[in-house]
Amino acid sequence: MCHACAPSPVSTDAFAEQILDVLNHGSLGLMLSIGHRTGLFDAMGDGAWRTSDRLARETRLDERYVREWLGAMVCGDVVHQRTPDAPGASADAVDQPREFALPAEHAAVLTRQNPTDNMAVFAQYLAVLGGVEDDVVECFRQGGGVPYERYPRFHAVMAEDSNQSAVAGLETHVLPLVPELAARLDEGIDVLDLGCGRGRAINALARLYPRSRFVGLDLSEEAIATARHEARGLANVSYIVQDATTFDAAQAYDHVFTFDAIHDQARPDVVLSAIRRALRPGGTYLMQDIQGAGDPAMDAAHPMSTFIYTISCMHCMTVSLAQGGMGLGAAWGRPMAERMLADAGFESIEVKSLEHDVQNFYYVCRA
Q1: N or C: less crowded end of the chain, CB within 10 Å?
Q2: Is the CATH code 1.10.10.10 the one for domain 12-114?
Q3: What pLDDT is stored for residue 4 in this prediction?
Q4: What predicted TM-score, i.e. pTM, was given to this entire model?
Q5: pLDDT 10s digits, 249-261
Q6: Which architecture characterizes domain 123-366 according to CATH?
């Protein structure tokens, strides 16, 4: 980078303060994850003032832990505390327990009441990735990768993530990206969700379109077991446990979905070519994958850039390398994605984005 393009230097003290903010915010992220997983944010979503004891009773949690969690939330300016000498407090408030409230503006992005913009969902990745730090450090020293089985909660968190970006907006946002798709699904076509995880998207589609036939494919036996369990009663959906790299089904499907699944495959190029072969004439492929340019200096402007590169290093890239793969990573970028789609045989590629999904591009590809 030329000196003229380099960021303005900051003093050592100023940079130290910046890193201190990182430590505080990183710690707060772990507490956000706990607040989501335990239902604490949901319980506080009505904005009412509560003591730690009342909140513990409502959530059936241990009060001592709830009280310490509230301390972190107050220090992080997520939850507000009403102190005894606050304006409007009663004269004997000094003897009363402290009360806490989650402002409505905060609840809007931290509770399950918002199906498309609950940012506490993403905080869960911090703990998941932290759990494999030792493994990743060893890969820095020895090369190789960390296999999928070392991430026991990743599929659960990814399912919640997908619920927000894809499942919650399937009818209203995702399907309209391919204008004729909803009508074709209503008539009855064959659809594949490759890298389906826990099958939330494909099960939702199977319920919406009973005339169509749906297949979900994923490497994880645990994820497929959950998908099958949640598909009970659906006669038009089936699941396969299979490495997508070995997938081969010539002209078997009218439409294929992949939701944030291509970039962490061992061989994305092989998988994309297999998807192209799997489509019947006139078939369509909708690939949801991470937004970016594939260049850190350009990607830095993205509001989730550091988060994306971190997940890439500690999950997406390394699970691919663990399979002897390309290690493409989440930050592979639009130029490479379009090039690999073209190399796979897709002649028509449109790139679209959705307002509610800042993470991803949507590539509409036609056979």
Answers
A1: N
A2: yes
A3: 45
A4: 0.88
A5: 999 999 999 999 9
A6: 3-Layer(aba) Sandwich (3.40)
